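step=predict obj=Orotate phosphoribosyltransferase n=192
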Amino acid sequence: MNNFSQENNLNKKNLLKLLIEKSYKKGNFILASGKESAHYLNCKPVSLNGKGLQLISNLFLELMDPSSKAVAGLTLGADPLVSGVILTAASKGLLLDALIIRKETKEYGTKAGLEGPTLKEETVVTVLEDVVTTAGSAIKAIKKLRENNFIVKEVLSIVDRKEGGYEALKEHNIQLKSLFSIEDFLMNNVQN
């Protein structure tokens, strides 16, 4: 899987504990993809928690392609992720920008579909996601970024549900790198 520094290996273990405690549920759920599932992961209780966001941000920063000059994601799930990663990067002396991708282009003002600093064309941007199922949200973000002449090589996610997202992204020449897969939750005999 991913080879992390010793510190981030510990961060990853602590993050999994937090996700199991605050984000994972068993039951009958309809996912954003429209699929039914007996397992639900809502990472927002962890990504909107100071310690959780710190863990995610450190792990994403180490996992991210070093050629990336910005991170981006579709609002709302990616909002804390992109903010956390650029703040963590800044604390380490790294320059990284962030873009928030609107689900719908504004109907007023500048009619922007992207929010954030003005970046040069062909800037390499990494897309951040909380959970990837079919990768529909990530693909929407990638298309919007590519329409604006940015280069997207990868998507980083907290969890890959292993339901076709990896393959869908591969069709768009995008590498999916995930901190965890659904198996990590199932192997830990989560009883929620």
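step=describe
The chain has a mean pLDDT of 92.
step=end
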